[in-house]
Request: fold
Amino acid sequence: MSRHQYDLIQCMKQTGPSTGLVCQQCDGRCPICDSYVKSTTRVRICGECSFGHLVKKCIICGNGFEEGVPSYYCLECVTLEKDREGCPRIINVGSSRSDMMFSKKKAEKSS
Ligand SMILES: [Zn+2]
Ligand SMILES: [Zn+2]
Ligand SMILES: [Zn+2]
Reply:
């Protein structure tokens, strides 16, 4: 299973008090390294990602859900302090083709 995409982007904004929720499929999966073992620290997400329609979307795969499951970082990522780097929500998964073109254009402009 190779889910890793080169264009995967994480939010990385400063985290707030909200817990990152995942769908049933991603239950137990570390949002940083995809590990399913040694879940250690509860994931916190930023204010933007815990607001509006994003609340009912998996922070890892972007799937919508009725009831999310709290997400946890694995022991390895906590040891490497990746849990402190910021909001781990993946922000470019499940976006439409036009969205992708838009973000590309934006990137070109800002560079
Ligand atoms: Zn991990
Ligand atoms: Zn965020
Ligand atoms: Zn998911």
